[in-house]
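Hi Q.,

Before the meeting this afternoon, I wanted you to have the (2S)-2-hydroxybutanedioic acid prediction in hand. No need to reply - just skim if you have a minute. The sequence and ligand are here:
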Amino acid sequence: MFEQIERVPGDAILGLIEAFKKDTNPQKVDLGVGVYRDSQGNTPIMRAVKEAEARLLKNETTKTYIGSHGAPAYGNVVLPMVLGENSPVLEAGRASATQSPGGTGALRLAADFIASQLPGKDIWVSDPTWPNHLGIFPAAGIKLHKYPYVDANNRLDFDGMLSALKQIPEGDVVLLHACCHNPTGFDLSQDQWKQVLEVVRERNLLPLVDFAYQGFGEGLDEDAYGVRLLAESLDEMIITSSCSKNFGIYCERTGCLIMVAKDNEQMENVRSQIAIVARENYSNPPAHGGSIVSEILTSDDLIPVWRDELTEMRDRINTLRRDFVEALKPYGLDQKYACVAEQRGMFSYTGLTPEQVDRLRDEFGIYMVRSGRANVAGFSHENLPYLAKAIAAVND
Ligand code: LMR
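Predicted structure with the ligand bound:
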């Protein structure tokens, strides 16, 4: 039977990890997969995480199952982190948290829930979006459509986005990026979020907000503006949150599906369905990442350590954005790439073409996604002159 199976190319983002490892160029630069890197190019374990793990190792008494919704202690800390400490949504008991294997796991739970409980609803995603969105929803049997997000000059096309949202059939699902839009780095302003809310209300759309980079844009609360506005203004929404990036625990697969319903009764109904979806996918989520997060967020001495480390990462990325544009000045390219300093989060949609990206890889050992998405955390003060020179060469 297997003789009929065709080989397909590997994942465009994850494939870069292997390709980069194999490259023997001593000056090679990895701007591929979205992981934070320090000035040495390493992805270190955060100090707060190390300490939390030491405490867990000492105090953990069992490895038994944690249930389909995951550890209650994890939900209890993620809900206020995402929705706000004094959230009226939490006070009303309208939100449910389900620990998931990463943000990707939360997206797949959401997709399976939509497919089984809201049949006939299509999903609308930004063009461009994280490539895995394009796989996850159709894999669950949901039809996927795109709305514009970036214009021909590589700028946020908010007018195009809004008028497309106004055309979405009533009741469909619209996927929005809470902050640090992946892959572009273009985020909505508070005023733009308010306009999106109005259209979502008018068209009776169900927002699904992907919140994978909380704390990497402007700050933990600032980045949650859109999520909290929608949750407090609408009866229903879906949020897929991740602690992979803001706790640097990528391999521990630590995400959360948050379902917001009209009232506590409806939330419990929805929650009961989510438990089934989780059970059918993987039964129980892995526990360790969630335990780290709840240990940190319930320890008065670890919270400030973690917050400071997150601020350090965010500030470093934003400084590198500005320094990248500066480094291009001698080549007369600073205006062309000025958007990199304006974007937020780990990624920049640089405007480099697939052909230029190929040349950067083949001639300079610089790796990024062919869409021109660069992981800004891969910049460093050591490699910026080399990067600028290489970008100038492929712009010739
Ligand atoms: C990325 O976009 O690079 C990250 O979200 C990692 C991934 O799984 O693609």
